[in-house]
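Priority: medium. Attachment 1 of 2:
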């Protein structure tokens, strides 16, 4: 095997997309991860990092584009770190995400899963109803959109006249998202994955910030939109923070701009339907319940529902949503999942859980003691989901179904729903 070195240039053919956002090529048997590559590309790359079993590289030139390569829609793509796959045909994105989930089940979970995973998908543009904008300021001496002044080495590259001219430029607001592979901020003029109400509101946010003193700028701005338009937090001059309303499956949800809520307006109702399926019974637990996305529809299928959420504002809004929708059979508890499972004396027919990206590992021993008849696991990370599913199956559950939902088009992220039953109730 040839030893790769940092700075080495290679010609490779991209084989597939990898979970994490890079294309995967091979050089003498070693996997090489190349951001912004497309399957089938013949390309020239430069090695940037070499590990024991893999390497990373940057794309220098596409010599012959693969069949799935398309023109990105956003002018910021490749600089902004928000999207990974705008250069990939959408059908190929969906196929890759199905493989991400199946690969996680096989490699991380150790399951035999020869069949393809169905990935539900919808319109891949204008879908995001939530965003977090980052702020920074240039000193007037930078031309790369990053925060701060030029270092001494950078200044030496300029003539004295250029430095003086740049120094006369007032600080400029930088409003947007993190740069790819960096904590710097790229100034955003457009974002075609945002719902129109948010994208159209970017100019108003920028104008409000221009009227503020720099010392009063927040670190980030949360934006969300629903049936009544967009709202932003924190409060900005001339822009009042309001509650956002979403309607999903006949239910009315009120959230704040900072609240977690499924971000894809085109697909959220299908995600809820896919997670709940035909489940019915006497008692259901909704763990990591957030503002009640799953709790409210569960209330129509179960005699009682217990929703568990430890974040204060989310739990408060969950109670508001329960009351607003007249779901009197839903109890909303502010508690960690682990604390609730340690204290509960009831055994539910169903546990539905939607844990954070790190998964539900701390809660699994307690969940296994509970021995609920059926489990539904909703996950935004196939790897941690597969790890947790392995532990559940080893302890007596049967994995019946796994579905995918492309809640994040143009990125490598994918939502998954797994359905399990207890082998010996």
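Attachment 2 of 2:
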């Amino acid at each position: 095997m040839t030893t790769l070195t940092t700075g080495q240039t290679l010609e490779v053919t991209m084989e597939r997309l990898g979970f994490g956002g890079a294309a995967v090529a091979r050089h003498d048997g070693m996997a090489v991860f190349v951001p912004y590559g497309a399957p089938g590309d013949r390309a020239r790359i430069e090695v940037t990092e070499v590990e024991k079993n893999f390497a990373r590289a940057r794309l220098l030139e596409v010599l012959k584009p693969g069949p799935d390569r398309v023109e990105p829609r956003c002018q910021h793509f490749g600089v902004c770190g928000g999207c990974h796959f705008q250069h990939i045909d959408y059908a190929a994105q969906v196929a890759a995400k199905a493989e991400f989930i199946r690969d996680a089940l096989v490699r991380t979970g150790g399951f035999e899963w020869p069949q393809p995973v169905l990935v539900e998908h919808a319109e891949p543009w204008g879908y995001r109803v939530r965003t977090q904008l980052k702020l920074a300021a240039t000193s007037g001496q930078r031309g790369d959109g990053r925060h701060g002044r030029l270092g001494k080495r950078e200044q030496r590259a300029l003539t004295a006249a250029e430095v003086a001219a740049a120094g006369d430029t007032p600080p400029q607001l930088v409003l947007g998202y993190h740069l790819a592979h960096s904590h710097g901020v790229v100034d955003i003029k457009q974002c075609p994955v945002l719902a129109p109400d948010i994208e159209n509101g970017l100019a108003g946010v920028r104008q409000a910030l221009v009227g503020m003193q720099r010392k009063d700028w927040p670190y980030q701005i949360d934006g969300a939109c629903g049936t009544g338009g967009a709202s932003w937090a924190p409060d900005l001059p001339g822009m009042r923070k309001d509650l956002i309303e979403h309607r999903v499956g006949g239910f009315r949800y009120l959230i704040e701009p900072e609240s977690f809520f499924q971000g894809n307006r085109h697909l959220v109702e299908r995600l809820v339907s896919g997670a709940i399926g035909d489940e019915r019974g006497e008692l259901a637990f909704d763990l990591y319940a957030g503002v009640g996305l799953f709790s409210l529809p569960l209330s129509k299928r179960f005699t009682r529902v217990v929703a568990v959420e430890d974040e204060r504002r989310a739990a408060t809004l969950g109670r508001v949503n329960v009351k607003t929708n007249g779901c009197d059979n839903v109890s909303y508890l502010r508690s960690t999942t682990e604390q609730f499972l340690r204290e509960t004396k009831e055994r539910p027919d169903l546990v539905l859980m939607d844990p954070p990206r790190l998964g539900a590992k701390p809660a699994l021993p307690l969940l296994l003691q509970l021995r609920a008849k059926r489990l539904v696991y909703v996950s935004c990370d196939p790897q941690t989901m597969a790890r947790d599913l392995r532990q559940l199956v080893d302890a007596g559950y049967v994995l019946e179904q796994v579905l995918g939902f492309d809640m994040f088009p143009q990125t490598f992220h994918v939502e998954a729903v797994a359905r399990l039953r207890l082998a010996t109730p």
